[in-house]
């Protein structure tokens, strides 16, 4: 004979299973908006790719070239926190496209705008000559 306590435990168990199933089928993708910059953690580094975890279904894969310095060395290691740009996310299959370079460019542009608004001075190094001037 089922007691009230046993029935409550069974109902709680069924509700927990239903909740877990709902979470699995409709995962919370967090605040990852396409076009935003988010913090992520480097979880794997190899010669071709860097995997970054941004709390999505899967890690974002970024070409290792985006993390190389002038000497060709990869500048991040597993465990490092990096800012990345969310280029695209596909909630259906759980994939995400990230860019480290684009995040750096956007942050630099924001800093330049801030200095411009304050009539500040920016010092830079000319890296090459182009048709309309120079790249700094």
TrEMBL record:
Under the heading Gene3D superfamilies, the entry gives:
Nucleic acid-binding proteins
Give the source's domain of life in one word.
Answer: Bacteria
GO MF: nucleic acid binding
Give all residue intervals belonging to the S1 motif domain: 35-101
- From which source organism is this entry? Mailhella massiliensis
State a single Pfam family of this protein.
S1
Protein name stated in the entry? S1 RNA-binding domain-containing protein
Q: Which InterPro entries match?
A: NA-bd_OB-fold, Ribosomal_protein_S1-like, S1_domain
